[in-house]
Amino acid sequence: MQYRLVVVLIVGFWVVMTASLVRRWLLEVKPEYIPGTYRSVLTAERQNYHCRMAIYLPGQNKKAGYTETVFLYSDDEKYRITSITRVQMAVPGLLEKLAAFGLDTYVVVGKGHTLERFSVLLSSPVFSAECKGEVVDGELVVRMRVHGEDEQVRRLPLPPGGMVAGGLSPLLALPPLRMGLRWATLVLNPLTLEPAEVELEVLRREPLEWEGQSWDTHVVEVRSGIVRAYAWVSPNGEVLKETTLFGLTLVKEPVLGDQGETRKGGKGSKGAAPKR
Predict the structure, then answer these.
(1) Is the dihedral of CA 27, 28, 34, 39 positive or negative?
(2) Judgement on whether residues 125 and 206 belong to the same structural domain of the protein
(3) Residues 26, 117 share a domain
(4) What does the pLDDT look like over 181-210, one tens digit per residue?
(5) Per-residue model confidence as pLDDT tens digits over 22-59
(6) Domain count of the fold of the chain
(7) Of 38, 42, 95, 173, which one's alpha carbon is 20 to 30 angstroms from that of 76?
């Protein structure tokens, strides 16, 4: 009887302490540190943020294009996120049918860091697609028109603060990361503009050579079905290098006129493009 009482007391104490620690962790983790939300990306130091990534084809050192993203904070307390992607040559693999292409994304994020609306336009010599989305009563209403076909409408649930990625990567910028962290982001396939959820996980820490220095980065895995891609993220959340689900490699480039910690990185960053 005494033995059972001791076991009950130990188990009860363990449960109480575990619940207390979990509750403490949930209360202490600030909303801006939760990845996969606009609050985690649109932090105070990124109110007017400019990021440019060079695009490289698989197995090649020749630059094939670029993707450029700008965050603008306006007097109406809303953010406008503009992303422009240009690829000047045919891409082998999933994007081969596009030949050269342009991909333009425009996102409006309102007060409380919640998505209001977005638009995505894909154009190439052989293919075009357009997508517009808006949040209505907590749902994401997506209207798609692919290569002149009839408009299709989809309604999807969207968690509060949830992000929608319409470029080549679901990663714009990130809060400070920790090992084992997992989250999901909604992305639009550039070919079909069909929305799909991708899973992301912080796998490990790994040094990354850049400008003769070794950067301590978190490696983030991006999963979509059996396809895998990876990103190397600096301690302050800058995506320095990444492979994409479409086989391309993106490398952060210097931004001229930047007023951050160094003129070689995005605002508030310690560095820019790592060596490939």
Answers:
(1) positive
(2) yes
(3) no
(4) 898 888 877 777 777 888 999 999 999 886
(5) 333 333 456 667 888 888 888 888 888 899 999 998 87
(6) 2
(7) 173
Q: What count of residues does the chain have? A: 276
2: helix, coil or strand?
helix
pLDDT of residue 94: 63
**Residue 22 structural domain:** 1-33
The residues near 61 (Cβ < 8 Å, ≥ 6 apart) are 276
Q: Cα separation of 238 and 171, whole Å?
A: 10
Structure tokens at 75: 């007097």
- Rounded CA-CA distance 136/24 in Å is 34
Q: Provide CB contacts within 8 A for 140, sequence distance 6+.
A: 115, 133, 134, 155, 156, 157, 158, 164, 186, 195
For residue 222, what are its two tokens?
């991006």
pLDDT of residue 271: 39
